[in-house]
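Treating backbone geometry as a discrete language has practical consequences that deserve illustration. In the encoding step, the backbone of a single protein was reduced to a row of integers, each denoting a local shape. The amino acid sequence and the backbone structure tokens for this protein are reproduced below.
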Amino acid sequence: MMSAPILSAKPLSHSRLPARRGLLGFRRDQRRTFATRTRIKMLKQQDLGGLSGAADGAGVPLYLGIDFGTSGARYALIDEQGVIHSEGKRIYAPVGDATDWACSWREALFHLLSDIAPVHRSSISSISIDGTSATTLIVDRKNGDLLAGPFLYNESFPDALPAVESIAPANHTVCSGSSTLCKLVSWWNSEGSSGAADSAVLMHQSDWLLWLLHGQYGVSDYNNTLKVGFDPEIDSYPSWLMSQPYSHMLPSVRGPGAPIGTVKEDVRSQYDSIAAFHAARTTKPGRAVTSLGSTLAIKLVSKVRVDDARFGVYSHRLDDTWLVGGASNTGGAVLRQLFTNDQLVSLSKDIDPSVPSPLITIRCRKKARGSRLQPRPEDDAEYLHGILESIARIEGNGYNLLKELGATAMEEVFTAGGGAQNEKWTAIRERVLGVPVRKAEQTEAAYGAALLALMGATR
């Protein structure tokens, strides 16, 4: 019988507002003041109302995956054959004076759990939650109070970068202002001398959400902890990190899919782009998954590990191989700002994907993070063609860079995310990339998280 804690979250007054977003949907770099406190209290465990019986899949072991994206959360409930029995989504509550990101995530989590039909709840055997890499919270392990954050994945803390670069190897994944370690060091530099620092623990987004279910502080996996400095090759934190005064804040690390605890069910942890890769169900070296969501993210199965912070490239361990990749500062967000869904469908019909577009509408620059979308052609279909072609070229440049850095050459690309629905874009990408491109059978990260729950429960 599935049980979940009933939680009470009471936000105190604060003035944090969402940072303004640029043209490509990225938050501008800025320091944060830590005025927010969210008091989280576990009151009791209560049966979600599971029913017994044989109808509608009841009695068959089911595996729940929940994906927390940038604008909302989704769940997928599958059986041992990967068949989906139920799925759904929730948009986050508005973030402003009345609430904050943590409250919105918590609310979405328990709304999704309550959305699952009672006939299915009694059959849930394990749960996996995936979140956004490098989205971080600082929590007081004595009482669960939120001491700082959440710091979102793309928030940068350049004030901490010199200190991080002084201890980490050159071009290490943590040598980026938006890395989890920079977020931790920035907080430590301002709050490390306070009494709260002694009991503080760093938690990633999915760590914290799972904590709401299992109640154990400071438990993570080696994919989430990559950007705080964990080395999956040696399966431990390196000595240069463990010698720092804030090392007691680092979470313990387990393999993705390993049991963490129970709320009468095993709980699993994983994060977003990796979960999308699991959803595509491809692990052969040379196979890749491109996630075409608000941003463009690429992942490639490689026999060789590749990490280079200069280009935002890093590797996650995938059993005996490596999942190498990174993300661009362009993607579907720019399309959403220029066209409606109906316009994208209508204009795409007028595009000949076999003919290269002469337009170069988007240029990504690390510092400027800008785009060149002017002058705009009079023909909207021609304009859309140019944007789709340009994003495909950026994707190709990304995979070429991985090869130049030593990764296994790309042989086939599966597509996840909303962009996978556009057949004309798929044909353009196939021409530009020079390899077969196809839509993944399952494209939602929530499905990949459910597969991880299944994998962990049946090991």
About this structure: The mean pLDDT is 76. Residues 346 and 381 are 9 Å apart (CA to CA).
